[in-house]
C-alpha cells in the first residue's frame, strides 16, 4: 500500500490531475494515455476507422482545451478537477513550476533592449577547434543609444556564473574598449573572449547594468553566451541524423493464426531423446502482468502465485513463475523492433529481410529463431512464421511454409520478432526435475564437515600451473575442492577482479581428474567466450578426454580455431555430439549453462558427472546455473562455483522479476548464508582470492577499500602496471588515473532510447589518437579498451575511430567483465541533469549502479581514464567519493570540480536536491534583483553600489552552469 500511495499515478489522482484525450473519429473521451492505448484496440474504434478508411493505430488524439468540471492549469499543462483546484495551487511542484515561469518571464524581459539602449552582437561562438579555443576567440559587440539626448551610462558588467551559489571557473571574459562609459549614438565597443583548452560546451549569461541619470533608475540587458570546443567535421558527422521521437506504443493486433515456418536443419543436429516441455505462461499470470500498477502486480504475484516460503518445497514453483514474468517482459521489449511496410528479396526457397540494427544486436537474432511476417492487406491477426536459416550483418534469411505466396518486389510486409523460447524452456525442464538436495539449494551449518579443513601442508599436490603453488589462497581453494568428500555443500571460489579465479578453477579441474581416476566433470559458464576460456586452458587434456559442446546454431567462424578439434561437427557442418559410447568416456565436458541441458537431453544418466563446475557464476541467473545441477546431479555430486558477487549480476529486463529476486545470482544468495561466512566457512565452503595480478596499486586502491574490505594485494607485473607512469596523459605523473571533466550534451535520435554524447566521443578519439601516436609509451589497438554504458555511444565511438584505430574494442561493461586492457577509457555519457533522476530510477548507465561501477574501473592494468560531466556524476555518492579520490591525488583535468573534494561524502545522497535548492536560490535572487531595479531608484540601492563603475572579466564563475542552466534543470527534472 505504501508503494501505491507514493506512486505518481496515485498522487495524480489525489491531486485531481487529468490528461484528457478525445478520439476525433469515435467522438469519445479517454482519461490518460493508458485509456487511450486501450481505446485504440477496441472493436468499436477499429470498426469506425475501417469505415473511414483510416489506419486505427495512426489516429492522433486531440487534447481537450475544455473539460467539464475541470480547470486547465497553464503552468502544469494539465486539467485539474474543480474540487481539487485549491489543493493543486498550493502543491509544492505547482509552486516550483510557477516560480520558474516567473523567472522565465523576468529573464525574457532582461534579454530585451530597453530605454533606447541596444546591445548588438552574436555571442554564440558555435564549434571552435581545440587549438583555436586554447588561444582564445573573441567576438565584438557594440552598445549604443538611439536617443541623442539620453543620459545613460554603463555601470557594470557581470557574468551570471560569478553571482550563483556554485561559483568557479568561466571560459568567457569581457573587455570594454576605451575608458568611456556613457551610452550615446556613437557605438561603445566591447569584446567577449571564449578561451578553453579542452573539449566541451560552455554556457553563461552576460548582464549589462545601465543607469539612466535623468530618471535615476537602473536597468539590465542580458545576453546568452555559448561555445562548443571540438571538431566541426566530427560534430557534423556524429550529430543526430533525425530528431528523437519516442516510439509510440499502441495495441498490437493479436496473433490469431500463425502458419508455422520451416526450421533450419541445425534444429535437429543433436539427437535429443528427452522431450522439451512447452512451459507456456499461465493465462492468469499473463493477465496479472498486463493490468494494474507495478505495486499491485507484485502484491498479487506474492499472494497468489509464489509459495509462502522460499524453501526446498517451493523452490521450483518460485523460480518457474519468475521465469515466466521475465519472459513476459522480454516479449514486450521485442515489440519496439516491430517493422511495418518493409520489402523482402527472394532467393528460392529463402527470403531475405533487411533488419536495421542487427549488427548491434538490436534486435538479437540467431539461426533457429522465428520471425513473423504479414503481407500488407492480409486478414488481421494472420501471420506467417519464418524460420531463420542464416544471419548476416544486416540481413536474415527466412524460410516459410509453401503456402506463403504472392511475393513481388513491391509487396510490403509487417514484421514481428519473436522470443527464442528454447533457453527458457530448458530452464523450466530443469526446474521440473526431482532434484531437491537441501545441501545444494539451502545449505546450513549442519552441512559443514566436522574437523579441520584440509591444510596445504598435508595435501601433497603437485600443481600443474606453478604460479598456483606460490599463491596461498589459490592453492587452498584447489586443495579444498580436491579433498571435498562426495555430496558436500557447494564450494565457492570468491574471485575479486584480477585475482585469477578462472585459473584456480581450471587447476582444480585438472587436480580432481588427476587424483580421482573415476572423476568426470561438467564445466559451464554463462557465455560462450567464458566457456571457451575454460576449454582453451584444458587443452593439455587429450581429444578423448575433453569435449567442447556448441549449440548447432553457432557458426564455425565464431569458434577459436584451437578448439575445433575438441568439437564434433556433422556432415552438414553443424555442431553436434559424437556417439553415446564416446560421449560417456569424456572426462571433461565444457559448455554454456543453457546448453548444458544437452547431456541429459541425449540420455546421459544422472550422476554421471562427479563434479559440476560453473565459472563466472555471478553473471547467470539461478535457474540458468541449475540447468546442469538439477538435471545431472545426484546425492554425491559436488558443485563448485567461481565468481564475484560484487561484480555484474545477470541482466534482468523485468522490474517485477528483479524485485522478486531473479537478479540475485546463486553465488550471491549462497554468500549470504551462514556456512559461507569467510570465517566460518573458509576452507570448507569458500576461499577468497586476494592477490590481484592486474592493476596498478592506485587503480586497485579505491575498489579494494570500497568493495573488498581492503584485503586485496597488488601483485601485478611491474613492467605492465607501471607502463604509463611519467606519461604526458597524467596530471600527476605517479598516479595513473585521470578524471577528464567534460561538460557535453547527451542526445538521442530517431526512436532509439539510447543516449550518446558527441563531445565525449571526440575526447575518446583524441585520447586514442594520442596513445597510438606516442613513440615513447608505445600502445597498440589491442592494448586499449573503451567502455560506454549505452549502445548508441558505442556505435558513435566506433564510427569516430573508423580508419583511425579500428582494432580498439568498444563495448558495454557487460562485454568487458572478465577482461582486461593496459588502457581503459570510460565514457560516462550523461551530461543533462534533467535526465539523472531517470538514471537513478532505472539504473541506466553507471549512475547508481555499484556493480557496473566496480567492473568498469577494475579492467585497467596501467592507465585508467574517465571522461564525464562532474556535475552529473557527483549526484551519486559512490562517484562523488571516487572523484574526490582522483582530485585529491591531483589526477584531475578538463572542466574543474564544482564542489569541495575535501568535504565528507554523504552516503545517503540527496545531492540532486541540493542542486535544485541552489538553483532555486539563484533563480529567486535574479528575480528579486530585476524587481528591485524596476521598483527602486538609484538612491534606494545604496551609495556604495551606486558609485560602482567596474567591469568583471576575470575568470570567475563556472561557465557551464549559470543561473539559467541550474533553473532549467530544476524545472525539467521536477
UniProtKB/TrEMBL annotation:
Subcellular location: Cytoplasm, Cytoplasmic ribonucleoprotein granule
Principal cellular location given in the protein's record: cytoplasm
One Pfam entry name: AAA_11
A single GO BP: regulatory ncRNA-mediated gene silencing
Every AAA+ ATPase domain range: 487-666
Molecular function GO terms recorded: 5'-3' RNA helicase activity; ATP binding; hydrolase activity; RNA binding
Gene3D superfamilies: P-loop containing nucleotide triphosphate hydrolases (3.40.50.300)
One of the record's GO cellular component terms: cytoplasmic ribonucleoprotein granule
Enzyme class: hydrolase
Catalytic function, reaction form: ATP + H2O = ADP + phosphate + H(+)
Highest taxon in the source lineage: Eukaryota
E.C. designation(s): 3.6.4.13
UniProt keyword list: ATP-binding, Cytoplasm, Helicase, Hydrolase, Nucleotide-binding, RNA-binding, RNA-mediated gene silencing
Protein family membership: Belongs to the DNA2/NAM7 helicase family. SDE3 subfamily.
Protein known as: RNA helicase
Lineage of the species this protein comes from: Eukaryota, Fungi, Dikarya, Basidiomycota, Agaricomycotina
